[in-house]
Specification:
The chain has about 180 residues and is an alpha+beta fold. It has one domain (about 25-179): Ganglioside M2 Activator Protein, Chain: A (Distorted Sandwich). It is built from 4 helices and 8 strands; from the N terminus they run αβββββααβαββ. It has helices spanning about 5-20, 95-100, 105-115, 140-150; strands at about 25-35, 40-50, 55-65, 70-80, 85-95, 130-135, 155-165, 165-179. The strands form 2 sheets. The protein has a 5-stranded antiparallel sheet. The chain has a 3-stranded antiparallel sheet with strand order 2-3-6.
């Protein structure tokens, strides 16, 4: 047996460890595809591992015909069940309108909050510059996918289709694991 004080201390330590256990997001891949090389090209698109626990994703898309005043983004979430299957969300958002009225699109705002601090895609149209996502780490995804709206563990794919002037011009796919 343990003394009351030691048992209480042991109980507090175990409780602290149990409360600290939480899900963790890890990027596994990033794929960027330009469907219209005359409209957009990717200068870089990579997942970079600094060490075993710290990874980030980055891409830079050149817009070759600027200014762009009409952008829609279709984003779909997939979960891996014997191949990637649709999971929860598949929606298209008028980006110019969304950035003016974010509260009107709560699901889009949920996903936008993941990358807004790592991106220059944070103002309304027109866009007359390259679109950059710079060093998006798993930290924001961990918060959004485990604290704000808890997701079940598994392998995920978030596919984004970038639609300029009603034509899909680029596709960016984010792969990751929630464990």
């Amino acid at each position: 047996m343990c003394a009351k004080r030691n048992c209480l201390l042991l109980f507090i330590v175990i409780l602290h460890l149990v409360l600290e256990i939480s899900s963790k997001w890890e990027f596994t891949n990033l794929k960027c595809t330009s469907l219209d090389k005359e409209f957009t090209e990717f200068e870089y698109c990579h997942l970079k591992a600094i060490n075993r626990t710290y990874k980030y994703v980055s891409f830079k898309a050149h817009l070759l015909k600027t200014p762009v005043t009409k952008i829609k983004v279709n984003f779909s979430l997939f979960k891996r069940f014997s191949g990637y299957r649709p999971f929860l969300y598949n929606m298209t958002v008028d980006s110019c309108r969304f950035l003016k009225h974010q509260k009107s699109y709560p699901v889009a705002a949920f996903f936008y909050n993941i990358f807004k601090d790592s991106s220059n895609i944070n103002h309304t149209c027109p866009y007359d510059h390259d679109l950059i996502l710079d060093q998006l780490t798993a930290t924001n995804l961990n918060h959004q996918l485990t604290k704000v709206l808890p997701f079940p563990e598994g392998d995920y794919l978030m596919e984004t289709n970038w639609i300029f002037y009603d034509i899909t011009r680029a596709v960016v796919k984010f792969y990751g694991t929630l464990s």
